[in-house]
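Readers of this paper often ask what the protein records in our data store actually look like. Nothing more is needed to write down the fold, since each code stands for a local backbone conformation. Below, we set out a record of this kind in full and without editing:
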Amino acid sequence: MMLSSDIEGAVPISDFFGSGGFSAALDTYAASRGGTDRRAVASMWSLYYFSLLTIPYIVARRAHHALPVAARSMTIALAEDGLPRALGLADEGDWSDSEEGDLLSFVMPLVSQNLAEIVAHLKTQGGIAPKLAWNNAAVYIDYAFNATERKRPADGDAWASRSLFSAPHLPDGSANPFLGCLRHEIDGEETVCRRKICCLRYLLPGIPSCGNLCALPAQRKQ
């Protein structure tokens, strides 16, 4: 994530999705990987997009800094294989006095200004169900929030981001699209985090499994 003015070859996200750029990017990536399942190609593309978007955003919010992530003001640049390589911001954002640790409030701008729009494009142009796309975004929000947790909650819960996946509504009263996307399960002698919906990466040649995170038991050891 960078300033748009510093990214070579970046185009506005609205133009990218509105002028056939996204479809062309999926074609390029499919050709580079030998992938024939359009849903799997679009899902893998979204994993790159969501990681570039959500990890810097969450880390910045943890440091009381709000990045401007409205899709209408952002740009995107692609790698040669069609996958996102950088996202551009109009400016550096500003100080935020939001309560540290309030993950549900953290994600509100992400959901309302960016993710909801991108998830819709992934459905109409990429053919993937919204519940799959939200699950793809969820894993990176979970990772970033847990990785930056500096103190153990008073109740001793080691899963810092649990509220994002258990609350039925977001702070504005809208339905929480992340509800149930991830769960913690006991597997032998360890607690593992697992997705609700498979990302379909197993349908792409040469792409390794996501291991214990996978929603499909048969794919966890591949």
